[in-house]
Amino acid sequence: MEKANDMITNNNRVCWHALHTAPKSEHKLMQRLNAAGYTTFCPMQAMFVKWKGQAKEVIVPLFSGCLFVAGDASEITSLVSSQKAALLVDREGKSLSIEADKTELSAKFARLLE
């Protein structure tokens, strides 16, 4: 089984698959997938929230309940079903995959959501 770490060499573009999980569960899912040898990515953003009358900075996922995993779709499908997650699919029912490097992944995914 070829792991995503083997697929990323010399900053090549990688095939990323979008996964959906429960909001606030992204970090746990990333840890499990990383422990299984997969490369994951969850773009984060800083937000200010008011808490007890003060503004606090918190770091949250850019896309709530969504993260990306690099690798072969068939391997990922069997893995995510046991992780309380699902592959996002396009209009044709195929797994939503984006060929990109990490720097352009968020922008490409946002364009798909438009």
From TrEMBL:
One Pfam family this sequence matches: NusG
Gene Ontology annotations of biological process type: DNA-templated transcription elongation
Entry keyword set: Transcription
Keyword Secreted belongs to the record: no
Top-level taxon of origin: Bacteria
InterPro entries: NGN-like_dom, NGN_dom_sf
Keyword Protein transport: no
Protein name: Transcription termination/antitermination factor NusG
Organism: Bacteroides fluxus YIT 12057
